[in-house]
Amino acid sequence: MKKILVLAGAALAILLWARSGCSQDLSWSAVLKGVRAEFGDVTQISTDSLAAWMADSSRAQPVLIDARTPEEYAVSHIEGAVRVDPDNPVLAASEIRTDAPIVAYCSVGYRSSSVAQQLAEQGYTNVVNLEGSIFKWANEGRPLVAEGQPTDTVHPFNAVWGRLLSRDVPRDQ
Known about the structure:
Helix 6 links the parallel strand 4 (102-105) and strand 5. By secondary structure, this protein is of the alpha/beta class. It starts with a helix and ends in an 11-residue tail after the last helix. The chain has helices at 2-19, 24-38, 47-55, 70-75, 89-93, 110-121, 133-139, 159-162; strands spanning 43-45, 63-66, 82-83, 102-105, 127-130, 144-146, 149-151. It has eight helices and seven strands, in the order ααβαβαβαβαβαββα. Strands 1-5-4-2-3 form a five-stranded parallel beta sheet. A two-stranded antiparallel sheet has the order 6-7.
């Protein structure tokens, strides 16, 4: 219930800013600040850092966890990501070593920060959240896949959150 209230409050704040004519950057700033405030104990990793990590074959690659709905995941995800239920991620992650590097993401970072926090509470020692999550990743033109094929389409979660996607990012309705 708490998670729903946090999401609803953040969505309302974004909607009010958008209606008042504020910029997309202000909305992103508020969302990122809100995620950090709500999940201060969760380490955040930038999209630049994750992309560099994934490109570095000399480093152990992270387990990518997508904390979105099956419908969102089906539209697109970061290649190699495993979808988990954000309400019960430990069950889905039970086959992952507790010391494995894990990067969680969702649409903007709320659900994935919650997943990262839950995993850390269950003894996973190397879990981080992708700051800005798949929306920021897509806004930067980074690669996405659907059914093993490249795509640039992203599920907007809903009309309010979808405002955080760049206008040139195709949305699945």
